[in-house]
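Re: export button greyed out
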Amino acid sequence: MKAMVVQEGQLQVATVDKPTRKMTELLINVKAVGINRTDIISRKGRGGYLKNPILGVEIAGVVEDNGNDPSIPVGARVMGLVNGGAYAEYAVMPADRAMIIPDHLTFEQAAAIPEVFLTAYQTLFWLGNLQQNETVLIHAGGSGVGTAAIQLAKQVVGATVIITAGSEEKLAYCRQLGADYTINYKEQAFDEHVLEVTDQKGVDVVLDFIGASYYEKNLASLKTDGRWILIGLLGGAKVDQINLQQLMAKRIHLKGTLLTPRSDNYKAALTTDFMQHAYPMFSQQRLKPIVDQVFPLEQAQQAHQYMEDNKNIGKIILTTE
Amino acid sequence: MKAMVVQEGQLQVATVDKPTRKMTELLINVKAVGINRTDIISRKGRGGYLKNPILGVEIAGVVEDNGNDPSIPVGARVMGLVNGGAYAEYAVMPADRAMIIPDHLTFEQAAAIPEVFLTAYQTLFWLGNLQQNETVLIHAGGSGVGTAAIQLAKQVVGATVIITAGSEEKLAYCRQLGADYTINYKEQAFDEHVLEVTDQKGVDVVLDFIGASYYEKNLASLKTDGRWILIGLLGGAKVDQINLQQLMAKRIHLKGTLLTPRSDNYKAALTTDFMQHAYPMFSQQRLKPIVDQVFPLEQAQQAHQYMEDNKNIGKIILTTE
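Workaround output, generated via the alternate export path:
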């Protein structure tokens, strides 16, 4: 089969063996693939989390072999997380992560769901414990996880949503998705704006993809008993001079997380919970996958470059068709 | 009534009005008082958390006026948290925090229970989510909270307990209380020992009373998905540089906490949960209050000095009798 493999840090077309389905796995004919930052990190060889030499952690496609598992028929349209191997014509997926694609969605749209919606769901609700009537600050509002998080925070618990982004176009898009307050971080210190719109109280939850460069401002933006979910380091990892007294006095919960390296059991449990509490909202048109651009599989390298330029709103997708 | 008040940073005997019981409060004839580090911070005027000019957050005594609340009779021996005002002959206590003193315990022993056992319970179980078969690292093992935490971790969930302390006497005492491994931090880098006795895996939970000076070693001692409960800063607050990548890759939950400034509702809920899951173990002799020294109320200043010298194992108590 055709697959994209990394050669000297670049994605190249190659012909490789079809993957072999193990017990409790499905063999999927891949129709579309979502690109994630973890793929870029893996391509550059800076500590990828998965052993699979073929990149990619989420797919949408058609079940080719279900190992006689009657719960997911051959021919079913499914989407879900895979343990690498997505950038290819075929991939295997643990059956307990397969989600049936809602009828009204294309494969390209479906491939834009698993990683970002599951990550946003996990960070907002499992780790952030976001409640009705609470307020969440979502950085990188226009990113894949950002656009998913805005929708989930509004639709699942009706929280107040504040986002940051770097262009007026992104801010306007986030407002369309339901964001209550939007901040252009290039024009305004976001913590000041957050305190202003929250009557100086701050927010209950921060989704932090930025890390070091926002450390002090995130801390200033958080309420007492606030939950600070650290899920990316686009602004660096090293913070000079932190004061633990601030974390203690405000009783902050600072939680680092990553989804890709977690166990199969964790991903299955997260998928199950998501299926119950969020997935039905796609058919109700209350949640929608946000696709920015679709590239042919062979142009995966260009697609990575496009993500690195940070111009996308929502997901970048590869298609095999 | 007689009370100890702060004058120019020193505790002095004074005569003040008896406190007035409000609805849902009990008036208590105070027999014994537990001393806590928060009292020392308040005495020194460095940001006490309570408005009451009389120090002290926990008492044991006899109910003098119950406002006709039939659930706690006049004359009952009770212990519990108070919102300041403990260093006195009388104090008021919200009725939903009053715990009946087990028959076999003296007032001095009972006054050694509320703050440290509730704090240890909260940090180990509510925040640390410590489970059976998990391992906890408890710093300051000989301290009030340390001696309570060792017992609770062993008795409530049967966890493996590793402690640090600064003298052989304290280490031996902690072993008697149930600690599985003890480390003299003056003689050994504790993280190396922790990794050694956990097969290089690290611990699930750290109870951190130390802060800055242990930052790197605590991080090194924690397992992936470890919970790091920050509850004191005996080793300073300022860390020169931190690397958020380490927190994220290990998916650490770093939770700052303090008990005294929390809401009345929180303290009542914590007391209720503690009554159900830990309190019965005092009568079963599976948990015991650890009293190091008892001082007369009038010698509260000397008692503070004794705590500041860090020589105590367990609690320092004031008695009115």
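DSSP finds eleven helices and 16 strands in chain A. The button fix ships in the next patch.
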